[in-house]
Amino acid sequence: MVPCETNPARKISVVIIDDNAASLELLSTALASDDVSIVTTEDPEEGLEIIFREHPQIVITDLVMPGTDGLDVLDRVVAFDPAIDVVVITAWDSSETAVEAIRRGAADYLKKPVPFAVLRERIARLVGDAQRRHRAFTFSPETVDAAQFEGMIGRSPAMWEMFARIRRVAPHFRTVLIGGETGTGKEFVARALHNLSPVRNGRFVVLNCSAVVEDLFESELFGHVRGAFTGAVQDKAGLFEHADKGTLFLDEIGDMPLSTQAKLLRVLQNQEVQRVGSLTARRVDVRVIAATHRDLRAAIAEKQFREDLYYRLTMVEITTSALEAHMEDLPLLIKHFLDRFSREYGKEIEGLTRRAQIVLARHTWPGNIRELENVIGHGCMMARGSSVEIQDLPEYLRSPVKARAAGGS
Ligand SMILES: Nc1ncnc2c1ncn2[C@@H]1O[C@H](COP(=O)(O)OP(=O)(O)OP(=O)(O)O)[C@@H](O)[C@H]1O
Ligand SMILES: [Mg+2]
User: Fold this and answer.
1) Which residues line ligand 1 (CB under 6 A)?
2) Could you give the residue range(s) of every CATH 1.10.8.60 domain in the chain?
3) Alpha helices in 104-231 (DSSP H)
4) Which residue in 75, 87, 242, 310 is deepest, having the highest Cβ count within 10 Å?
């Protein structure tokens, strides 16, 4: 199990700080419910002491107070544990302060007088999130196996739909385009398509189009005959011939030069290649999978990508989801990578501390699953005990203000 620290009493604890007794009374009445235990204080310093001692999930603080103000409280709570949700409430309506509070790591910002209903709803959401985070990190090891598809992990609706689509498409496709952000598993999808296709025993040949020098593109793909150009000292088969009766994976197809795109389209239509410098056409039987993280429609508008090739490739399209769109898979993916890296590093790492879990749950993952893989790899390498702690995570994740600003929340 991933969780190393669990909250045995499922009650969510809330500390409320406000120098105005009436307003304290109002807040705690609004929040009272069976799932919540509430501590209130009029003194910010005492409030902080309680927070450091009781380690609540939620802190609600007034902004303007004598001595220590709400932003100070916020800073110190965030420094203590970025996992604590801090809600700042103020009678002074200033959107600048609101932005500043959020930038410094506040979970929410409310203006007094806060209507009962609004307060209850916003806090209920935070309580719900806190409970979900707790549950999400609790699952049995078997679930990881059950959530495997051709090496890919996922059990969210988005992932299952994609797995189903791969399974449906694999037996039949001639060409497929895989779209999706960087690090979302496009190469995995390509391999799964090949492995489930009738040509699974044939070759799976990869060409990364962003790594090929423009002049050599055609020779790489279609081959050349001796003397076709300077340096062509002997006949050479291209990747299409090499992938005959198998699959050719053209990664980063958006980086293919326009002139090569025209020739590729012809090959896809005729299933014949001509080596550079040769007049003879050779028949090839190749399935082509192309992938890109770029918006090819925009590339077409900019005349960087051929529209006819685009339509040819998109007869079947599979799009991978950004990790942020299927965060329910995060705990499983974490577990998967923890297992892998503990094996790789010969360590016995069982999980992440609650604080580390929450930092990961709050991050927006612009680099998607690849970024997560790197983060867990880093964590496992740094971990001294049986769990990855917050200080084992890369620096950019540990600084809550920056992580939030990057997430734009
Ligand atoms: N569903 C998944 N389960 C487990 N690991 C995954 C999954 N998807 C991706 N990965 C891992 O994430 C990393 C990135 O995947 P991959 O290289 O396929 O991404 P990509 O979409 O091709 O990215 P790019 O556009 O940057 O090339 C790989 O190391 C892969 O092992
Ligand atoms: Mg890739």
Assistant:
1) 152-154, 180, 182-188, 293, 320, 336, 369-370, 373
2) 141-145+325-407
3) 116-136, 141-146, 157-169, 186-195, 217-222
4) 87
